[in-house]
Amino acid sequence: MQKTILAVTLCFVSILAPAMTVWADSVNVWTVAPVAITGEFSPVQVDSSGQAHIAIYDGVGQCLKYAFGSGSSWSFQTIDSCCGVGRDAALSIEPNGRTDIVYCDGANDDLKQAWSTGSGWNVGTIPGSQDCSFSGGLCDDPVRGVLMMALFGNTSALNHLMLLWQQSGYAWAGPETVDPTNGMGVTSSLAFDPRGNPQVAYTSSDGILRVAYISNGSWSQYSFSSPIHATGRVQMALDSQTGDPRIAYYDPTGGGSINVACYDNGSWQVTPITTTNASQNFSMAYDPCTDGYAVCYWDQTDGTLRVAGRTGYNGMYSNFDMLVDGGITGGVKDDVGLNPYITLVADNEYMVSYDDSTGGLLKVAEITKDSPLAPVPEPSGFLILFSGAAVALAVCQRAKRN
Question: Does 20-395 carry CATH code 2.120.10.10?
Answer without folding.
Answer: yes
